[in-house]
Amino acid sequence: MAGPLAPTLAQDLFFPLQEELLGVLRGLPTGAWDLPTPSRRWRVREIAAHILDGQLRRISAQRDGHAPPPPAAPIRGHDDLVLYLNDLNARFVETSRRLSPRVLIELLEWAAPRLQETARATDPYGAALFAVSWAGEVRSAAWFDLARDLTEHWHHQQQIRLATGIPLLLDPRYAVPVMDTFARALPFTYRDVPAPDGTAVAVAIAPPIDRLYALRREGRRWILDEGPAESPKARISLDGESAWRIFTGGIPRDEAMRRTVVSGDGALAAPFFDVVAVMK
């Protein structure tokens, strides 16, 4: 039976996940650093630099209290925030093109233990440094912000693996907390979908990630539970690779629908394909 999805505590996962990334990067031949990735904008080297940028920013802001440069215009909502972050991202990536793969690896090696220490020093139930806006939040608990950061590191590493032909990292140690975090975007995605009280939508993700979620209408909002939905009006079933690529906007909607099996009320399942669990 479904029950509330517990907080995703990711503080201890940053260092081992970084070791997985470094193992990939250390083994790449020189030419592989210039391969295109599913992000379309960036090659392998730019994805690695983007991961580094996010880590350095968190260490600087959370450990040292150092604020990033202010935005050129006021941030009045999610779209303004995305524009601001995209600008920060693009500036670092542009500068990183001056760096060799070896230097990028060494900087990622430097960042890994410091990021882990910063995460462990954070009170998971205190206020987040940044709200998780793709979940519709204006204030978030620190554990959610850290879990969101983990999803960034994990899915960008997947992009590098896809680009270089290296097997995906679907170890449940990382993939389960990542998927649980992505799934928290669903209530916000469904926020304008009307349904009678108690209506449920089941989402089943196949092994090796192996997750069941129940999206349930309660009063004027949708609630996300973990486990099998009771008498769902719609059921959505898909494999783990398709799930993370849908949550991160990595495949077109028509391809996402082809990868997914829907039963029951198709109109109630349709909003699932509009989910966004990244800053975009």
Structural commentary:
With 280 residues, the protein is of the alpha+beta class. It has 2 domains: 8-169, Four Helix Bundle (Hemerythrin (Met), subunit A) (Up-down Bundle), CATH 1.20.120.450; 186-274, Nonspecific Lipid-transfer Protein, Chain A. It is 46% helix and 11% strand. The chain has helices at 14-26, 44-63, 78-96, 101-120, 142-164, 172-183, 186-189, 240-247, 253-258, 266-269, and strands at 3-4, 200-205, 211-218, 221-226, 234-238, 261-264. A 6-stranded mixed β-sheet has the order 1-4-3-2-5-6. A hairpin with a 5-residue loop joins strand 2 and strand 3 (211-218). The longest helix is centred in the middle third of the chain and has 23 residues, at 142-164. The two termini are 34 Å apart.
Give me some keywords for this one.
280 residues; Four Helix Bundle (Hemerythrin (Met), subunit A); Nonspecific Lipid-transfer Protein, Chain A; 2 domains; 6-stranded mixed β-sheet; 10 helices; globular
CATH architecture of the largest domain: Up-down Bundle
Principal-axis shape equals globular
Strands across the major sheet, in which order? Answer: 1-4-3-2-5-6
Secondary structure: number of strands: 6
Largest sheet: 6 strands, mixed
Radius of gyration: 19 Å
Rounded average pLDDT: 94
Q: How large a portion of the residues is in β-strands, by DSSP E?
A: 5-15%
Q: State the CATH topology of the largest domain.
A: Four Helix Bundle (Hemerythrin (Met), subunit A)
> What letter string, H or E per element, gives the SSE order?
EHHHHHHHEEEEHHEH
Q: Please, what is the CATH homologous superfamily of the largest domain?
A: dinb family like domain
Helix content: 40-55%
Distance between the termini: 34 Å
Low-confidence spans: pLDDT under 50, at least 5 residues?
none
SSE-based structural type: alpha+beta
Count of distinct structural domains: 2
Q: How many DSSP helices? A: 10
Q: Give the class-level CATH name of the largest domain.
A: Mainly Alpha
